[in-house]
Amino acid sequence: MLPPVTAAPLPADEAELSRALAYLASFTDWEQLKPAAAKPFPFGLERMQVLARALGHPERTRPAIHITGTKGKSGTARFASAILTAHGARAFHFISPHVERVTERLSIDGRDITGGEFAALADQLRPHVEQMRASAPELVPTFFEALTAMGFLHALVADASVLEVGLGGRLDATNIVQPVASIITSIGLDHTQILGSTHDAVAFEKAGIVKRGVPLLLGLHPGDQGFATIAGRAVELGAPLLHVGRDFVVSRTRLVRRDTSEPQLAVDGIAAGLPVRDLLLPLGSRHQALNALLALAAAALLLRRMGREFDLDRARAALATASLPARAEWFPDNPPVLLDGAHTRESVAAIFELAQQLAAGRPVHALVGLTLERDPVSVFAPLVDAASVTTTTVPGPRGQSAADLAEALGGHAIESPLEALAAARREARGGVLLVTGSLYLAGALRSMLTQEVRRPLS
Question: What is the pLDDT of residue 31?
Fold first, then answer.
């Protein structure tokens, strides 16, 4: 996403970032294009393999954890990265999409890449890409593939990598890596135009990250839809399988408030044979507890590969203070705001349940936005018990209009997200405001919320 146009001179770092993004804008960006059934998405690994070879295969030089899942991959990745950093390992973290700024996608030890560093990586790509553009234009990478390659290069100054899949798994740009551990957090129906309309079809795509002999940590029970497809792939490749119900158990979760601190999630359970009690996590619904257990086990595997001893106390401290932007993020304002990028029916149900718990009998008001490829009636069905719903338009070309959403949901439409937030806050006085439906919406509003988190409304 390009920075806003301004007549004032940009600081040097911002100017470098703007320069790099202007160049990357010459690549196809499928995240920003409207869905079109008649035009297939150009997924495949050939472009990434060619580009990685030209760069000297940076993806092969650092031990990595590779994560996919319909939901939960970002929280799991952030938890794993935090644990590695707490053990003294410089951890590179690749995410997609970002919440507020593209530089979030490439970070080390929780520090986002600077604009100057970002531009330097783009400059490293440029001669190789331009050679492809001249001799084999079909091999020019997409925007996401270019960012992935830049991520592999940035990881060279780290000790280890935690890589989130952008979409699916089998044909995702990150899937040229040979990880120490693979994680599949969950299976659900999302991006069905691309990944398929059944759980088994989605599971097949996610299972594409399973590598021969590499342990697979699976956030599914044996009876869950998609489990058999993934387990079969693990058997086929001789990948040791650790799964929920046997190796990972969440025995209890509860919301806790200590002193005047923000609420946290306390967890008891088992992570690949390691019992944990009173494990404190950032605020989240029950699935966040499982994400933490998966991250504990994966980080322990990677640390062992690096010849380092896993320390549960260090891991505890890292998890308790981990940052999860726009994932059940709590802003104790007046009214308090719960911000989450949930965009599937299951994830909206989970975050609404959490909002109700936090409201403790007070009304929950919802501010929602959605992208074009999603059915608002289905996604927001769990919000039927909300006190009121305000709809807004998600920024960018893929946002459904506030008016269309209001017609489908019966809510009050306000086109501008910032104006909608102000109106929803007034509506939610005396209760809790839930903002959800899209990470793009969360990103558009988070800057205002972080600036005003301790400022009561006038």
Answer: 62
Amino acid, single-letter form, for residue 148: T
Q: Are 393 and 417 in contact (CB under 8 A)?
A: yes
Is the distance from CB of 56 to CB of 149 less than 8 angstroms? no
Tell me the pLDDT tens digit for each residue of 84-134.
Answer: 999 999 999 999 888 989 999 999 999 999 999 999 999 999 999 999 999
Q: What is the pLDDT of residues 354-410, one digit of tens each?
A: 999 999 999 999 999 999 888 999 999 999 888 899 999 998 888 899 999 999 998
Q: What is the 3-state secondary structure (H, E, C) of the chain?
A: CCCCCCCCCCCHHHHHHHHHHHHHCCCCCCCCCCCCCCCCCCCCCHHHHHHHHHCCCHHHCCCEEEEECCCCHHHHHHHHHHHHHHCCCCEEEECCCCCCCHHHHEEECCEECCHHHHHHHHHHHHHHHHHHHHHCHHHCCCHHHHHHHHHHHHHHHCCEEEEECCCCCCCCHHHHCCCCEEEECCCCCCCHHHHCCCHHHHHHHHHHHCCCCCCEEECCCCCCCCHHHHHHHHHHHCCCEEEECCCEEEEEEEEECCCCCCCEEEEEEEECCEEEEEEEEECCCHHHHHHHHHHHHHHHHHHHHCCCCCCHHHHHHHHHCCCCCCCCEEECCCCCEEECCCCCHHHHHHHHHHHHHHHCCCCEEEEECCECCCCHHHHCHHHHHCCEEEECCCCCCCECCHHHHHHHHCCEECCCHHHHHHHHHHHCCCCEEEEECCHHHHHHHHHHHHHHCCCCCC
**In DSSP terms, which residues pair with 252 in a beta bridge?**
268
pLDDT band at 457 (very low <50, low <70, confident <90, very high): very low
State the first-to-last Cα distance of the chain, in angstroms, to the nearest integer: 32
Spatial separation of the C-alpha atoms in residues 420 and 442, rounded to whole Å = 13
**Pairing verdict, β 264-271 and 248-256:** antiparallel
pLDDT given at position 334: 84
Q: Is residue 274 predicted with pLDDT exceeding 70?
A: yes
Structural domains of the chain sorted by starting position, each given as residue range(s) with its CATH number in brackets: 12-320 (3.40.1190.10), 329-452 (3.90.190.20)
